[in-house]
Amino acid sequence: MKRIGVVIFALVALAQLSVPGWAAWMRTQTLQKGKLWKFRIAPVDPIDAVRGRYITLSFPAEQVPRSEPMHLETPAFAYLKEDSRGFAEIDHLSTTEELNDSVIKVMPQGWWNNVQRVKFPFERLWLPEDLAPAADRVYGQSSRQQKDNVYVTVRVHNGDAALDQLFIDDQPLAQYLRGQRPPER
Amino acid sequence: MADPINHRAIRWLRAQLPELVAGGVITADNASAIERHYAAVQSRSPNFGFVILAGIGSTLVGAGIILLIAHNWDELSRPIRCALAFLPLFGAIALGFFVLLRRNDSVPWREAAAIFDVVAVGTAISLVSQTYQIQGSFADFMRIWLLLSIPIVYLFRTNFGALAYIIGTTVWVINKSFWSSVQPGEAFFWLFLLLVIPYYAIIARKGTSGWAFRTLSLALVVAGAFGLGATVDFARTDVGAVAFAGFFALFYLIGMLWQKKSESLNALALLGGLGIAVTAIVLSFESMWRLRSDVFWSQLGIEQQMATLMALLFPTAAILLAGYSFRRGRTFYSIAAASIPFVAVCARLIAFLAGSSSWAALLFNLYTLILGIELIVRGIRAESIARANFGLLVIAALAFARFFDSDLSFMARGVGFIVVGAAFLMANLLFFRQRKQA
């Protein structure tokens, strides 16, 4: 009886290790091998009680010209391309699944005036607790001015999209904020 | 299975021994034999205080780990943060093996190892999610956490773990349905809750007077009520009244089935009874019976149909259980209380077929009155002032509800108050006559 318990616990422990382990492994692969895309953003800042702080991102590229609405809540696939300034935008939407480094899975939202809104599979950027409020403030200012200097980088590998970094003035967020901070007391 | 040890009774008995010896009821040898027997029994049973301390201690350590991790050290590289996320989990698993192999008989060790493991799993998942910017809702996170934690409840036979799991299912269903528009998939709540029911049944078999049974009963009833609220809200088929009536009746009946004659009313029966009384009062309001006019079974989605059937499972089970016991001549329960799902079905049919919410409400007013009277009579028979008073309280609450219910005419209110008042007088008369005879 005791031995059965130990064997079952070994299996449970394996499952407990493999869930976060597998997620980390998948992401590592995408971050190492994926194609790099830059997305312009516009942020806000709610608080998640358990998982520290994050910025909720939304993207101008989430609006796509389209003559007819897509079915809500059924995943679609967005084919990405780069615009003239090197930022990612959606070339077209499709319901046929294709896994490569230029396609991401999106959720169709509302359709209005020949514009289809979709939701990207990366909408939260986790931040260090002490940086989140400052980041939000700086971001709010920069994104309102609609400049090219605020964007996130995303690696896409075989349909898996991994949010990598947030950049202001071509510097990663933490580095940028450290440059902005008043000297330590 | 052996009955749980009643520590209070043992203390009392041991204190009585010198008196019994002095009175010549038992010999000094008998007294020391009894003393030795209970000393051995008490040393075998776990120290409740220590169990609590172990549970709280490991919860605090776990919470501290979560806080450290939520701080999200940005100085560290991704692989290092990822490795740190797994450290508590490796520790918890090692402790788990140690406890299963070497301390399997110790309740505090088992509780502490189980809580530590559950917290460590949640920590590992959330830190890896943060580190690698893995997206997903809070509900998704809770779901995977619950599924990875439930085996621990059984492996370590942990009451704290079971309690945490039930609270987790409640948090999940609230997050899934109340804070956002109701999302599909909320019916999985019942599957999650079902996974812990066998453990609860094991605890119930060990005895219905311990703290574990009481606490888990309370958690289960509260979790179930939240889940049922979400289910009927999702179904949008006006089955809430019938479903809640059945839900509390089912708990009440099961509680009464487990009730031992010599003990005071167990927690499950008590909670079921309270739920029945509250449901009866709530359903006596006319507005509860105004139905949606646009519900057609064929137009509902498959998930809504499933949710409706799920909600109706409770009244069905309650009616079957009551009917089965009644046929076997074992009416250990209050007939009025057990018949609430049946009355709710009748009221729902009246509201639907006659299109009249006031007749349905009137039926429930009558029912609540009868329920109150029956509770008083049962209280008097069992010579339990608490139960008799509970019956009176139900009737008083009914009267109070009607007083503030502006939907009824003055005429109807007047007649109702006269009926309630007369019932009160009669009940009191009966009660005191009985007491005088006794």
Largest sheet of chain A: 5 strands, antiparallel
Structural class of chain A: alpha+beta
- One letter per element, helices H and strands E, the order of chain A comes to HEEEEEEEEEHEEEH
Major sheet of chain A: order of its strands? 4-8-7-5-6
Count interface residues per chain for the largest interface.
Answer: A-B, 38 and 39 residues
Strand content of chain A: 35-45%
Estimated radius of gyration of chain B: 27 Å
> Mean pLDDT of chain A, as a whole number?
81
> Strand-and-helix sequence of chain B, N→C?
HHHHHHHHHHHHHHHHH
Q: How much helix, percentage-wise, in residues of chain B?
A: over 70%
Shape by Cα distribution of chain B: flat
What's the alpha carbon Rg of chain A, rounded to whole Å? 20 Å
Total number of helices of chain B: 17
Question: Mind explaining what this structure looks like?
Answer:
The complex is a heterodimer of chains A (185) and B (438). With 185 residues, chain A is α+β, with helices and mostly antiparallel strands. Chain A has two domains: 1-33; 36-180, no CATH class. Chain A contains three helices and twelve strands. Chain A has helices at residues 2-33, 132-144, 173-180; strands at residues 35-40, 42-44, 53-58, 63-65, 76-82, 88-94, 103-112, 115-119, 124-127, 150-157, 160-168, 171-172. Chain A has a five-stranded antiparallel sheet with strand order 4-8-7-5-6, with no helix packed on it. In chain A, strand 2 (42-44) and strand 3 (53-58) form a beta hairpin. The A-B interface holds A 2, 5-6, 8-10, 12-13, 15-17, 19-21, 23-24, 27-28, 31, 48, 50-53, 121-129, 131, 162-164, 174 and B 66, 69-74, 82, 85-86, 89, 93, 96-97, 100-101, 104, 117, 121-122, 124-135, 138, 141, 144, 148, 151-152, 155.
Give the topology, please:
The complex is a heterodimer of chains A (185) and B (438).
Chain A: H1 2-33, E1 35-40, E2 42-44, E3 53-58, E4 63-65, E5 76-82, E6 88-94, E7 103-112, E8 115-119, E9 124-127, H2 132-144, E10 150-157, E11 160-168, E12 171-172, H3 173-180
Antiparallel strand pairs in A: 1-10, 2-3, 3-9, 4-8, 5-6, 5-7, 7-8, 10-11, 11-12
Chain B: H1 7-22, H2 28-44, H3 48-70, H4 78-102, H5 107-131, H6 138-155, H7 159-177, H8 188-206, H9 211-235, H10 240-257, H11 267-283, H12 302-327, H13 335-338, H14 340-354, H15 357-381, H16 385-404, H17 410-437
Helix pairs in contact in B: 1-2, 3-5, 4-5, 5-6, 6-7, 6-8, 7-8, 7-9, 8-9, 9-10, 9-11, 9-12, 10-11, 10-12, 10-14, 11-15, 14-15, 15-16, 15-17, 16-17
